[in-house]
Amino acid sequence: MTNDELRLLFFEEADVLFSIYDKDLNCIDVNKATLKLFNLERDKLIGRNIRDVSPDSIASGRYEAYMNVIKTGKTLIIDELKAWSNNKEVCFRIKAFKLGNGLGIVSKNITDLETIIKQTVGELKVKVKNLDDANKSISEMIKVLSNQNTQLNDFCGIISHNLRGPLINLSILSDFIADCDDPDKRELMFSKIKPVVNNLNETFNNLVESLQIREEVGLLYEKVNFEELANKIIEKHRIEIELYNATIQFDFKAVECINYPKKYLDSILSNLISNALKYRANSRKPVIQVKTEMKGDKIVLKVIDNGSGIDLKKNGQHMFKMRKVFHDHPEAKGYGLFMTKTQVEAMEGEIFVESIPDLGSTFTIEFNPKNNIE
Amino acid sequence: MNKIKNLALVDDDEIFVFLTKMTIEESNIVDMVKVFRNGREAINFLNENSHDPTQLPEVILLDLSMPVMDGWQFLEEYIVLKPRIGKKIVIYIVSSSISPDDIQKAKNINEVTDYIIKPVTKEHLVEMLKNL
Fold this sequence. Notes:
The structure holds two protein chains of two kinds.
Chain A: H1 3-13, E1 17-21, E2 27-30, H2 32-38, H3 42-45, H4 50-53, H5 62-72, E3 76-85, E4 88-99, E5 102-109, H6 111-179, H7 183-216, E6 221-225, H8 226-236, H9 238-244, E7 247-251, E8 257-261, H10 262-278, E9 287-295, E10 298-305, H11 312-315, H12 336-346, E11 350-356, E12 360-366
Parallel strand pairs in A: 7-9
Antiparallel strand pairs in A: 1-2, 1-5, 3-4, 4-5, 6-8, 9-10, 10-12, 11-12
Helix pairs in contact in A: 6-7, 7-12, 10-12
Chain B: E1 4-10, H1 14-27, E2 30-36, H2 39-48, E3 59-62, H3 71-81, E4 90-95, H4 100-107, E5 112-117, H5 122-130
Parallel strand pairs in B: 1-2, 1-3, 3-4, 4-5
Helix pairs in contact in B: 2-3
């Protein structure tokens, strides 16, 4: 075959639509692919005007645009042209260019491409949503890890602060005893060991207990009735309540029950009520309110007293820490609120305090929604 | 020999106070030791005796973690009180804490001469004399 013959064959067999028009946009020649698309015989297409072949070419402005290409010589590209072929909608990408006195048009069927693109966009959307969900999970995990980190830091602080003190004393004591010849002095030194060891024991036991609390969680959920529990606690403190002439009021109408380890809730509420009684104002009768309410989807427990209050500006950062005591109260050891906070947080809840010195305090516990009764 | 006439020990740990007093006595460097159980007791004493230098200590050994008012809170109030006190007082923080944060915090307070990690030794006491 000659080169020209090859070129002709190429024109005819190409999978892309080729069509040639004269200066009035009458069809001069088309290739096989074009015939196939319009489902026409060659003699039905050749010589006809593009207006007849594509009825919407005038309305769509294409006719005018094609005439413009012939006039100006400037190539026209149409990115997306939809047409009907064999009762199916097809999509083309068209390039129209000046060819001699007339027009040459190349059309590429991009219907499949469109489908692929739509599919890919769909898949990408799903992937993006999955990434978003993963992101949210990671954010939550970071929060949990961050919390645990804080707990660990607190723990380390407690160990170095509260255990070092007594250990240093024991160290000094043993040095003194070793260097000491006077038997009376030695006796005195020995007698000082016991209280230090007791101190050490108590701190250590509290630490271990708080660790156990964190580990035990998840095993002991039960349905606890607030009123029943509160009444039990009142009974335990009956003597103090009568002695101080205290009034304790309950309001559990909003939330009557909660899914919670009973011994923790007992310990938490006991500690808060006991503190309210301990830190009463000497000048007035103690009035303590215990109530539940809903905050969004969380159960909230409040213990409100009219006691001596706390200067939160001064001591706010020390609240709930081990062995930090603000009052000269003989019974204050500094473990109660630390334990309470440990228990509340082990169950993924939060505890806050508001207080005005000489007016009173409000302790608020927000429980995790997973503790709600279904 | 040069001596410290009046030293104040501000610490709530009774055993530590007992032992440190013994160390001080055996060193023979200090005439009188006053003990305060927390920052509030110490600051009240300084307040009441601000015009009487004979009662005021030359050296304060200050613990950090005490109930009612801790070492940091004491220092805050001391800084306010200082202009009214007619005597130079050398303050040492004496703590069981080895936290670098605490040590740095102490360095940043002018009124604190040094940070001693417990226990207080005879060597420390001799050093204190030099800083009077």
